[in-house]
Specification:
heterodimer, A: about 325 residues, alpha/beta, TIM Barrel, 15 helices, 9 strands, B: alpha/beta, Methyltransferase, Methionine Synthase (B12-binding Domains), Chain A, domain 1, Rossmann fold, 2 domains, five-stranded parallel sheet, binds cobalamin
Chain lengths: ~325, ~210
Amino acid sequence: MANKDVLIQALNYEEPARVPWVPYVGVHGGYLIGKDADEYLNSAELLYQGAMKAIEEYRPDGLPIAFDLQLEAEVLGCDLAWVKDNPPAVKGHVLDKVSLSDLRLPTEGDGRMPLVLKTAERLVQEVGKDIGLMGLVCGPFTLGLHLMGSKIVSKMVKKPDEVLEVMGFCAKVCAEMARMYLDRGIEIIAVVDPMTSTISPKFFDKFVVPSYDPAIEIINKFKAYSLCFVCGNATRIIPNLSRLNMHGFAVDENLDFKYVAEEARKNRKAFAGNLPLTTGLLFGEVEENIQYAEECIEIGKGPGFILAPGCDMPYFCEPENVKAVAGLVHGK
Amino acid sequence: MECVEKLVQAVMEGDDEVAAEVAQEVVEKGEDLQPVVAKLTEAMRELGKQFETFEIFLPEMMCSSDAMTAAMDVFGPKLGASGAAKKKGVVVIGGAPGDMHEIGKNIVTTVLQSDGYEVADLGRDVAALEFVKKAQELKADIIAVSALMTTTMPGAKEVIRILSEQGLREKYKVIVGGAPTNGKWAKEIGADGWAENSTDAVTLCNNLMGVE
Ligand code: B12
């Protein structure tokens, strides 16, 4: 049996043969191979090496290709600030300089797309049979924030039509990015939209849910799997996430995982979470991390459950902590 | 409806245009601004509470902040004259070096402003030395550092280090906050206070300044 089979079982809402385990190794892959985050996220070779090292050390069932929510925004013209121990951050919002109609959909040759897509291709070829590779795309609301800055949030009240128009464009970018991954044989697409924890269920349904449709449509066309990742205290929108037309969703440690499991199960959806990143994987002791993982498994075990950290693993995560969780999953 | 009530309602509903208009009416009527500002402050405190308990969400909170700012901008020049704005203190706030999160900091800023503080917001990703320079320039009482990531938390410690190095530590109260921070860490780095949210941030500042 391939490792990824248990993950696929969970995504199909079946009872997996054992607990599926997906460590979100993003910039932390750079740490694993002794490279700074900025260098790591700018090299197909390093992204490949980091992923291979993570596979060797952490024995995952699924793994993201690159965890950088700024990839699309950069291509669209946002200025990034690069640092050595985090993914880059958007510092200049492109819609402050140009209007929406000036923006074009990203293509495969733009910005850092080629190196991410090349990494995807190479990993699919070399480990795709055994590992459920995940293509991460920036969620439309978070991309909208990158493009417009935080005024997108107040404009949801004051200028809803303007926001809906921006979201419409972001939805297309999201679908296009998903297509690029899917074309390379990626089987799981995660729409990562951390900003969604800041709005009400009503606004989530009005502004965000429709913006996932184009991506969902293309993912379904490829018969691939879809997940939605949120971040922060998203308690109020958990029922809405569970109702999305996706295979499942992922949450971080800011919420009650028991409630998440209940809500996901109402709609037979996969749910991933929620190992604590900061208090656990980054700063915790090995024993604590085993305990946290046991607690997650105790709450989640059964159909649909995927054991995963809350979000992108911090650069300096303690590898021994992650290995201990892998050991628990694999029975040693 | 009476002007003042209309103004409070505009702030609660987050309508900055109406807030500015009605604030203008209030000024033209020559109303005593002090009780008006007190009512608005009360409304903002209430909104802050509703926000922390998820009765309202970020879009609503940001709109109300904007409406409050719009009203205060209209009052601004008149406030000094009527003696209404006895400011409680001067706060210099900013995001820790390398931190691009701004939402929480912005909320703390407006809530402090509506509670009677003069707040200079230096934005996000502010160099540690910049906090100190600005505090000196504005003769601030409080330096507030917002850190949303474990990797940017050391920036707050750096601000305190620079203050000590320049012999200025006693001149300012340093407060810290942001999702991954806590009171224990704040003590460890030698800060004067920590607050979990904007409502508590006001209480913290009031305590540090010895005001209500
Ligand atoms: C929205 C968000 C973003 C937005 C930010 C938008 C913006 N313009 O601000 C975007 C998408 C851009 C973003 C980017 C990133 N983020 Co982010 N983000 C969040 C999220 C989901 C919510 C933060 C928020 O705005 N909350 C709402 C506000 C109102 O709450 P708040 O900020 O906590 O503020 C309140 C209190 O903390 C307090 N407070 C705040 N400041 C201060 C200051 C003082 C003095 C006081 C007294 C009180 C106080 O009062 C506020 C009001 O109640 C959090 C999750 C979380 N748990 O917080 C992650 C989170 C903060 N992000 C995180 C990360 C890792 C990142 C990225 C590196 C992601 C990536 N992989 O690319 C980048 C980093 C960018 C950078 N260099 O800064 C991590 C940090 C982990 C850690 N412990 O280090 C978090 C915790 C998510 C997670 N679980 O992993 N993010």
